[in-house]
Amino acid sequence: MKRFLTLCIALFGAAFLAIPSAFAEFPTRSITYQIPFNPGGQSDVEARRQQPRLEKALGVKVIIQYKPGGGGSVGWANLIKQKANGYFMSGINIPHIVLQPLARGNAGYRTEQLVPVALFQATPIGLAVMKDSRFNTLEDLIEFAKKNPGAVTCAGSGTWSGHHIAYLQFQKMAGIKLTYVPYKGAAPSVAAFLGKHVMALWANSNDLYQHRDKIRVLGFGTEKPFQPMPEVPTFKSKGFNLMASIDRGAGVPPGTPANVVKTLEKAFLSITNDPEVKQQMLDAGFVPIAMNAEESQAYINAKVKEWAPVVKEFK
Amino acid sequence: MFDSVLLGLAQVFEWQNFLFLFFGVFMGIVFGALPGLTATMGLALLVPFTFTMAPAMGLIMLAGIYVGAMYGDAIPAILINTPGTPAAIATTFDGFALSQKGKAQHGLVAAAFSSSYGSLTANVVLALAAPPLAIASLMFGPPEYFWLAIFGLTIISTLSSGFIFKDLLAGAVGLLLSTIGMAPIGGDVRLTFGFPDLQAGVALIVALIGFFCLPEILTSVIGQRRATYSSEKVKPTLGVVKEVISTLIKRPVLMLRSSAIGTIIGFAPGAGGNIASMVSYNEAVRWDKNSEEYGKGTVKGVAASEAANSAMAPGSLIPLLTLGIPGSPPAAVILGALMLHGMKPGAELFTTHADITFAFIMGLLTAAFLVTFIGSFGSFVFARIINIPSRFLAPAILFMTVLGSYSIRNSMLDVWIMFVFGILGYVSSKLKFHPAPIVLGLILGPFAEEGLVQSMLAGRAAGGVVSYMVFRPISLVLISFCLLSALWPLYASWKARKRKSTLSEEGSHA
């Protein structure tokens, strides 16, 4: 019912308020915040946490709208078609927005068409085995895989996703061959792993943190140790320069005026720098980050450079 | 444990909590009943409101929504042949036939009572045996899902109206439609015809509205210019409530079997209620002596479907509460709510947080009772919807189909797909194709594909695909079910022939 109401309000709002007011300060009316995933997913949880705080910071209503499908691509294809005035923004996820156009040819959008406003949350990716596994360390797994190419099965969420690319990069760096079994999302891959249908698991830090008493994490794709689980080594400390994470942020359509981006950026950064929000994220196994628009763009560009050859090689 | 149960019950009956439970059930019924709105959306919308509530109160409200939605989806299934959520497809088979006979209230009461029954049974299982069942749920791997999907496809033979070739063809069309969009494994983009939006594939609910709801409007209302949606007027009475409930109570095997099927399929993570109600309906037809009554409007058919899909809800909470693995999309939202209140699924949920956990479980239980209560009294109102003249009802339904198709993903393309399917459905119903096999193929296609490809990947790594897929306890059971189900029609026709020949022999002696 509520969705219908918001929909109606949004429609009426669009009809009556579409007259651009060039002189008024942005924003003067409600902002649509698109989530390109299903309600209840992590991107949604984050947006719901931000919603009241965004409304306070911006002084206008923020309406969350779902546009799921294609691992986010349907929503991002929709984003670039919207008016570039800041009244329509969308959650953006890395590596999705980098890998989809690389792997699919026509994903409906190009990476450079999405203008990042800020990145506010990182979810490091780790490689884990069960507590009773024969692999006690990353070295054990590598040694076994060297002797038995392809025998180690590892689950992960999706193909040409963060987990898949981490697997491809790790394989190459370590000079081994594993078997990657993709699942349609994190939850089914975790279930398959806990049910011992695969030997190892590529997963996001929050899932690994949640099941920490049953599993052994062999490594995290982070620069510094993952704060809630400091005892776990990083791939870097083991000699593999593997930086793997799922990063969440917000973006706007191409051509959005700089002052509008600045206003939104400030609102998002003030929220992610709020100590209460930071603590909530850490408690759930996430890493709060605060990258402004410029830093986010540089980060995305660096990732494009890093992954384009990998996708090309394995596609 | 017994005191935890009582403590939980006491919390449910605190007046504020009970009020929120009632509100939750009501909202759940609304979300379930409107095609295009789902239990998942209802839960996700209301989770933010639980932030500021006490954990028990918030979870009790969510329990109400989940249980309510599992019943709510039966209302449009019975009245206008449109399942409110995919889980209620099987409810349409007999539910809509009932309302066509002027017995909409029978269908509604049967749905409410059997929803409660299924929900209650599964809740008792959840409260008593969650930890061991959760371990069993983990035994479901890729091969098991593949065989479960194949078993699901054998249901086509039961749904068949006699032209098995047509039904198989329809099932194949459904499987083909399920491949539109991104491949579940490999990520290739298939059959999008250049529409980037089709990467998301065909939304199930859009197909349901298209194949079930539109053809009905086109044939009966526009084609035959019927004044009302059903040829008979409904006159709800209290007698019907009593009659239906006593009929169903006298069928304990049907009710228990349906609830058990729902619970088991519910706790296998990911399978969900869509399959549960189909499998349960199929078994109800198979084991009933008067199987010819099904599909023509019997409360037993409605009960089989609704008991199973409502039992699925608590079933899907078994792996969630014990292991933190959500067995269905709504369960995933509930997981989020639990985590927000600092409750980590696992053993400590039943020890440290036992009071809140049992308040939640008792909330589910009480919600189940509320469903019978609201459903029985609500049936007086809901059933009368059918009496509204077509010239008002048909446009309203058309409007709802557009809104429902749009709102599921905020996509205009979905509305066009719905219309295309509607016309296809209309043409194929003229050619005597049943839409159910199409939708069955659409639901089960991804399960079968995913299970097969994952099994092949893991099987190759283990040194043998066939042995990996067959020699597992649950796989073997499912394979034998598949064989049984596929060969059953042959057995049934042999038995019928034998009965006929003995009858005619007796006739000749007399």
Can you summarize this structure?
The complex is a heterodimer of chains A (315) and B (510). Chain A has 315 residues and is of the alpha/beta class. Helices cover 42% and strands 21% of the residues of chain A.
List keywords for this structure.
heterodimer, A: 315 residues, alpha/beta, D-Maltodextrin-Binding Protein, domain 2, 10-stranded mixed beta sheet, 11 helices, 42% helix, B: 510 residues, mainly alpha, two-stranded antiparallel sheet, 23 helices
Descriptive overview:
The complex is a heterodimer of chains A (315) and B (510). With 315 residues, chain A is an alpha/beta fold. Chain A has two domains: 168 residues, Bordetella uptake gene, domain 1 (D-Maltodextrin-Binding Protein, domain 2), CATH 3.40.190.150; 116 residues, D-Maltodextrin-Binding Protein, domain 2, CATH 3.40.190.10. Helices cover 42% and strands 21% of the residues of chain A. Chain A has eleven helices and ten strands. In chain A, strands 1, 2, 3, 4, 5, 6, 7, 8, 9 and 10 form a ten-stranded mixed sheet that branches. The longest helix of chain A has 22 residues. Chain B is mainly alpha-helical and 510 residues long. Chain B has one domain. Helix content of chain B is 76%, strand content 1%. Chain B is built from 23 helices and two strands. Chain B has a two-stranded antiparallel ribbon with strand order 1-2. In chain B, a hairpin with a 6-residue loop joins β1 and β2. In chain B, α3 packs parallel to α16. The mean pLDDT of chain B is 88. At the A-B interface, α1, α2, α3, β6 and α7 of A face α2, α3, β1, α16 and α19 of B.
